[in-house]
Amino acid sequence: MRDAVIATLQWLYVTTEKAPAKLESILLVLRDMDGVAYTTGSATEKEIHFSCQHIVNSSARAADEIRGVLTHEVVHCFQYNALNTCPGGLIEGIADWVRLRAGFVPPHWRPTGGDRWDAGYQTTGYFLHWLEGRYGEGTVQDINEALKDKQYDEKIFKDATGRKVGKLWKLYCEHLENPSQLPVPVNPSQENPSHEWIVVQDR
Fold this sequence. Notes:
mainly alpha; 3 strands; 8 helices; single chain; globular
């Protein structure tokens, strides 16, 4: 959980001052349930519910899968959501983008195109990863920041990149035909991030 919080703050915010200040606690609940995991709660208190059966089913790579799922869910605790108007696909895509950047990429993940940039999860996550590679580090941070205190508008992509999201998606799908030009997922520990992160003591 500690590492997941650090990864989330590292990739979504330039400084800790930019991150939401109201969150006081995150409770992890391990239980028997369908699916993988989900996050619920208020602005001050969050709960992450994680399926024990999913952990069992992922026993061959349990450590990485646990870290990856926790990273994804912790992002939901800290990311902005345009006053609850942001498309779910972008919300889930940002969470998987942070998981990707943290280095916990499941073996079945692949960059894919299709009709919708906001299909969510790894589809949108890899699209955001490509945006970072093309338009520079901090692009996704800018998109997340634009979701802070106003309702969702697709022009946040044009503000961040100079292009409309439809055009960006078209360019991305064209790049999928040449995988050698796609950014390569990295582990942040290999990048020597320049900013330092303050970690609150475990409760």
